[in-house]
Amino acid sequence: MELSSLTALSPIDGRYRKKTEELGSYFSEFALLKYRVQVEITYFQELIAQGIVQTSASEASNLSEIYERFSLEDAKAIKKIEQTTNHDVKAVEYFVKDALKSRGFEQSLEFVHFGLTSQDINNTAIPLSLKEALHHCIFPSFEELLHTLDGLSQAWDSVPMLARTHGQPASPTRLGKELRVFSERLRLQLTEARRVPHCAKFGGATGNFNAHLVAYPSIDWATFADTFIANLGLQRSQTTTQIEHYDFLAALCDSMKRMNTVLIDLNRDCWSYISMDYFKQQLKAGEIGSSAMPHKVNPIDFENAEGNFGVANAFFEFFAAKLPVSRLQRDLTDSTVLRNLGVPFAHTLIALKSTVVGLKKLVLNPDKIQLDLEENWSVVAEAIQTILRREHYPEPYEALKSLTRTHSKITQGTLHEFIETLEVTQEVKEELKRITPWNYVGI
User: Span 187-205, mean pLDDT?
Assistant: First the structure.
């Protein structure tokens, strides 16, 4: 079958294509080829800057057009070369040589990929593409969600709400504060994710610059590589085997997993509040919640987000455990695994967008929230026993425990009758009577 959104094996490129297509610029096969070409060209330019390749500075700067204008036809040309080489990076090298030859660099072609191994290209191209994907797509999507959360928490800051611990009525809280719990957690984890360095391996066949040094023993190749990698906005791992050790990539995966876990928690709470009727959902004409039950409006956005965050985290956990492990100076298992690097970020992006849509659909149902508070006056028992402790009243916890467990329903009247029996001053009794489920919400 011809490949389309309907025939794609993965829902990322099928059902959810419109939500994930922006990541194609960073994680697709086309993107990988483009970033590989960029690394090869910028390395060649650095060799020119160091005087190893003789040409003018203006000619060198024009070479950037090769990757800046990289097209689908260029990618197809590389894939055609690969049919002969059966080696993807070597195909990129030959493509770059052809491009340089057409620009008059016939005498310098063997300085393309000079002294390098495939992983010098891959382990620079991939972290570069990942860094730019995070900067342009992933982190802004987290920021959008945070902005949405901040807006809702501010709008609902003064809404008192019955809290639940262990699923049971507990000391009242405020809806806005409960949303800020998630925005604070997420913001802290996003800060940590941004701090993770994006590291590249660049050091020749087994990381020692063997070929570089034997050809040009007077050049400080470690400093050369540090400068080259830093100019790409990356950090060079100093002591490596043939491949990057991926420790910081593993750290990023762990950070991503923590952020996604925070949002799984948020989505489940929103789902629960909808099931408790604290929220209604904005309706869209024509949408159907159930094929059998016409009345249903399901919390599908939160369910979709939870599922996609879960898929993403499974990949992130696998990457963090697998990628830092390689036999001796290298095996090839990282190569096929890294081709899936975009998968968890795509599922994360789908989930982020679904969460934002879900949050924006929420409509507060104040009647139900008020009703739950009215029917649970027992939750102010904590307040009463705490003030009685302050007044040195004997065994106040036990007194309130006896009251709340010997009455099938605690009402305002029940509590006020109890307060009148207490041997405390009238001033304290009035203080206790002023406590309600609506004002006992803390700071």
Answer: 97
CATH architecture of 21-115: Orthogonal Bundle (1.10)
pTM of the model: 0.94
Q: Which residue out of 56, 166, 291, 295 is catalytically annotated?
A: 166
% of the chain beyond a pLDDT of 90? 90
Active-site residue flag, 28: no
Only one residue has tokens 């090869």, namely 40
Judge contact between 237 and 245, C-beta under 8 A.
yes
Judge whether 129 counts as a catalytic residue.
no
pLDDT tens for 228-283 read 999 999 999 999 999 999 999 999 999 999 999 999 999 999 999 999 999 999 87
List all residues 6 or more positions away from 256 whose beta carbon is below 8 Å from its beta carbon: 193, 312, 316, 344, 345, 348
CATH topology of domain 376-433: Ribonucleotide Reductase Protein R1; domain 1 (1.10.40)
Q: pLDDT digits over 29-45, tens only?
A: 999 999 999 999 999 99
Please determine whether the domains at 119-364 and 376-433 fall in the same fold group of CATH.
no
Q: How many CB atoms lie within 10 A of CB 85?
A: 14
**Which single residue is written with the structure tokens 């989505």?**
267
Helix boundaries (H) for 326-434: 333-338, 342-361, 366-374, 381-390, 396-405, 412-421, 426-433
* Catalytic position from the list 4, 61, 158, 290: 290
- 119 bridge partner residues: none
Length of the chain: 443
pLDDT per residue as tens digits for the range 375-411 = 999 999 999 999 999 999 999 999 999 998 888 899 9
**Owner of token pair 């059966």:** 86
Instruction: Sketch the domain layout of the chain as residue ranges.
Output: 21-115, 119-364, 376-433
End-to-end C-alpha distance for the chain, whole angstroms: 61
Distance CA 63, CA 49 (A): 13
